[in-house]
Specification:
Radius of gyration: 30 Å
Order of helices and strands: EHEHEHHHHEHHHHEEHHH
Largest sheet: 4 strands, parallel
Number of strands: 6
Structural class: alpha/beta
Distance between the termini: 88 Å
Number of helices: 13
Helix content: 40-55%
Strand content: 5-15%
Length: 279
């Protein structure tokens, strides 16, 4: 009103969730004396934000797409809290530049996957604000007007939507649970959870609950041990060779186990083994 600015903008109404975001934004506009000219929100092929985009388009509000390539550096921060094997499988699902669809379209137009993602946003009528400190990337991000995406290509890119909001993954990387997944679409959530729930063997190979290949099953217990109900009476070597039988040794056979138990219970401190210490 005092002429100190030409336009007003708002941001992140989309974080309220589907349907609710539009209703809250509509209520906000009904009470605003000066309507906003711009709505800033995270928009990229893995987070299409179609509902808010259509609503803004109908009202003539410009959408400003921040993180238009999914902020790969923030997503990589989340990958670093995962195991290397999990991260290797998660990148093609959660990082925009690693999407096979984008790479295929990029080869067709002889550009990069990042340029395809930016061009997709532009053709939807959005303005984009890609962030980079690399001069080559800054130059590449501006070279978006020598090619155009077909309607079929636009549709195939929009189908990549997974509800991936990079900021949530970035925040989750500092959480207490390293395998806590931020909310996404149900299909994306299930796909990522399937990766995280895999049982990893040495070398990154997976197993569906099976034993290692070199493990041929437990050997039969010797007769004198079987007669004792599976317990060694000490008459032969004194102890069961669990590894030879194909089992992991019991935790109580680990060196110092009973001493640690006594210390934890306040027994036997300074008194050697203490009363009742097993031989």
């Amino acid at each position: 009103r005092e002429g100190r600015t030409r336009h007003l903008g708002v941001s992140n109404f989309d974080l309220l969730g589907p349907k609710v975001c539009v209703e809250v934004f509509r209520d906000f506009l009904s009470k605003a004396k000066i309507p906003p000219s711009v709505l800033a929100m995270e928009v990229h092929p893995l987070n299409v934000n179609e509902e808010m985009s259509e609503f803004c388009r109908a009202l003539g509000i410009q959408v400003m797409a921040y993180s238009p390539i999914g902020a790969p550096h923030k997503m990589e921060t989340f990958m670093k809290v995962l195991t290397k094997s999990d991260a290797r499988e998660m990148r093609p699902l959660l990082k925009v530049p690693d999407q096979a669809v984008l790479e295929g379209i990029a080869r067709r137009h002889e550009v990069s996957a990042v340029q395809v993602a930016l061009r997709w946003n532009l053709q939807r009528g959005h303005c984009v604000v890609p962030k980079s400190f690399n001069p080559e990337h800054i130059s590449e991000n501006a070279e978006l007007f020598d090619f155009a995406l077909s309607q079929e290509e636009m549709t195939s890119i929009s189908k990549l939507h997974k509800g991936v909001r990079t900021q949530r993954f970035f925040q989750a990387s500092f959480g207490s649970s390293t395998k806590a997944l931020p909310r996404m679409t149900r299909d994306a959530q299930d796909e990522c959870q399937k990766i995280l729930s895999k049982i990893r063997m040495p070398g990154g190979n997976t197993s569906a609950g099976a034993l290692p290949r070199e493990f041929n099953g437990a050997a039969a217990l010797p007769a004198h041990i079987a007669q004792q109900g599976g317990h060694d009476d000490g008459s032969s070597t004194g102890k069961v060779d669990w590894e030879q039988l194909g089992f992991y040794p019991p935790v109580q056979d680990e060196p110092g186990f009973w001493r640690r138990m006594d210390l934890a219970m306040g027994k036997g401190i300074g008194k050697g083994k203490g009363v009742g210490y097993p031989d």
